[in-house]
Design goal:
By secondary structure, the chain is mostly helical. It is 74% helix and 0% strand. The chain contains six helices and no strands. It is elongated.
Length: 170
């Protein structure tokens, strides 16, 4: 409903604009172009009048040509600038982001502002591991598999097959 009313209103405004332009054109022609009196002129006077009108027409054609050339030039320039803008959008290289180390306190301070006063230690909840314990476990594991081959085999038949294969290669 509203859309159709807007379309009707726009049509009315366009018709009014066209009427105003026609009125302005008629006024301009009445003021600037005088009616030509051809009656009662001799052959030489008619020839001079024709030459004068041709000169005016040439001037008007030159102006029209110059204006058309300027418009054409400006439209080409606009197209070129639009193409450049599109190229720049596509070719824009985003800079590599750098890794920034920020503490948890700084993050909370930036998020919460001045409300944040308690400092958080994120490493306090982590489990501590002693290096000496891990080294001892590795040495124990290395000696364990060699000593307990029989215990880990699980089936005596497999151990016998392993021993048999070992005996054939020697």
């Amino acid at each position: 409903m509203l859309k159709s009313l807007m379309v009707v209103r726009a049509k009315e405004e366009l018709e009014q604009e066209m009427e105003q332009k026609e009125e302005q054109k008629a006024k301009y022609l009445e003021e600037n172009v005088l009616p030509v009196q051809v009656t009662g002129l001799s052959q030489a006077e008619l020839k001079a009048l024709c030459e004068e009108l041709h000169a005016k027409i040439d001037v008007v054609d030159e102006e029209r040509y110059n204006i058309e050339a300027k418009v054409l030039h400006n439209t080409r320039e606009i197209k070129d600038l639009n193409i450049k803008v599109l190229d720049l959008r596509g070719k824009f290289k985003r800079p590599n982001l750098r890794r920034v180390r920020v503490s948890a306190d700084a993050i909370l301070c930036s998020l919460l502002g001045s409300k944040h006063k308690v400092s958080m230690d994120l490493r306090a909840n982590l489990k501590s591991v002693k290096k000496e314990d891990t080294e001892k476990e590795k040495t124990v594991e290395v000696s364990d598999w060699r000593k307990n081959v029989e215990a880990k085999s699980g089936m005596e038949g497999r151990k016998k097959m392993f021993d048999a294969a070992k005996g054939q290669t020697q």
